[in-house]
Amino acid sequence: MKTQIITLESHDDLISVRDRMSWAKTPRILLVWPKYEKITLRHVDLKVLQRHASALGAQLGLVTRARRVRDDAEALHIPVFESTGQAQRVSWPKPRRRRRFAWRAPRQDLREQREQASVKEEAWRAHPVTRVLSFFVGVLAVLTLVALFIPRAQITLNPISKTQSLVLPVTASPAVKSVFITGSIPAREKRVIVDGTQTVIVTGAAVIPQSKAKGSVVFRNLTQQAVNVPAGTVVQNAEGVRFVTTDGGEVNAGVGKTLEMPIEALDGGVAGNLDAEAIDAIEGRLGLSLSVTNPEPTTGGRELPSVQASDADRQRAKDLLMQALEKDAREKLRSELAAGDLLFDKTMTLSQTLSELYDPPPGAAGTKLTLTMQVEYSVFYADALDLTRLASLALNASLPSGFMAASDAVTLKPVTTPSLNEDRSAKWTMRAERKIVQQINTAYVTQMVQGFGAWNVQSQLKKNLPLASAPEIRLSPSWWPWMPLVPFRISVITQ
């Protein structure tokens, strides 16, 4: 059978494909989807093309491997083939024909059948008394629903309350990591850094080197080779007073050859004024090749009397500054602790000295000595949350029967001063107090007042419950005289 093959292109749409199909004069029309081009034909477009092919007296078929197109074609009963050759070789399934229903004339006896099928209302239903009673029953049902679900009551109870008090021993230790009901709590550490400056009047006396002693030395060769003596060679006497050569030179080869060179003391002052023949040593490897001595005394070293800080002055400045820093550290620690924390003052220690600077430095003259320090202090304390938790555990363990805590608030008061042990733990006793109230079963209260008149409920509650004052009852709407009948419309609040 002849088949019109139409290869689709990427620019084809519903209108262009219909136009191309209209030129077909064969009983079969085969649309070929290209492999690498996208054709924008939807499910409804295929249905339109199928109907158009049927109007042309032809059957529509597809050649494609696209999953979506194959599913749409299968739903519309359009045959799909792998290739054009397969479409021409195999037979196509016959298209489904629409069922045509024969027209029937309407029946003439429908009105009579409707009248026969209708059921006439019984006479008692139409009676006025029945209708009035039905109306009153409906109104009564509505009023019953209103009485059940519209009223709302709120009962505020003030049960009997009293103060629960307990004195308990407390031990705070750095080795404890959590709170125990036996009275042990962690001793937490707090660190703080403070700095300050202290100035004192210098009382020490000393001398200041004014000039350095000078002279000359003679180097004597102990070998057969020439020996080079560079500038800066250090020589000294037996007491360790050191001099340095100011020029360089060379001692001629031969044992006993000599060279005289100028020297200057490394340190100023009269210590450099030495007698003749006092210098006798050379520092370094030159001492193996040369000997040295000063044929003439060294002179020129002078000193001036001055005021300098002594070790006692530095210690006095440090003591004064440490007292001020410790005071500042205590104040800073107290300001950083939370309300209720208990500080163990005697555990405060100096953790480390971060900086310590004296002005003027040791050895320098000055009438005033200024010390600047930055130090770190550490101290142990008891955390308020740990104390509150310990008190709550102890109070709950001794709670009277029938009572409950009014709130989480607990008042803590130290009875004794904390005493420190050798293991850095602290022991003391404290008093814990809180307000407790009589327990009231709200479900019992709700059951007690359901459906009663509001004028009797107040006296009934005061008679049967341990209350400190008369209960407060609020009804909504305010003019409603009875308590609600359903429990969930009654709310009970205890203060």
Q: How would you characterize the largest beta sheet?
A: 6 strands, mixed
Task: Name the poorly predicted regions.
Answer: none
What is the CA-based Rg, rounded? Answer: 57 Å
Per DSSP E runs of 2 or more residues, the count of β-strands stands at 27
Instruction: Find the structural class using helix and strand composition.
Output: alpha+beta
> What would you call the shape?
flat
- What portion of residues is helical? 25-40%
Quickly count the helices: 10
**How big a fraction of the residues is strand?**
25-35%
Q: Please tell me the overall pLDDT.
A: 87
Number of domains: 4
Distance between the termini: 97 Å
What would your notes on this structure say?
This protein has 495 residues and is α+β, with helices and mostly antiparallel strands. It has four domains: 3-89, Transcription Regulator spoIIAA (2-Layer Sandwich); 149-159 and 440-494, no CATH class; 162-204 and 308-439, no CATH class; 207-304, Elongation Factor Tu (Ef-tu), domain 3. Helix content is 25%, strand content 33%. The chain is built from ten helices and 27 strands. Strands 6, 7, 22, 23, 24 and 25 form a six-stranded mixed β-sheet that branches. A six-stranded antiparallel β-sheet has the order 16-12-13-15-10-17, with no helix packed on it. Strands 1-2-3-4 form a four-stranded parallel β-sheet. Strand 24 (419-420) and strand 25 form a beta hairpin. The radius of gyration is 57 Å and the shape is flat.
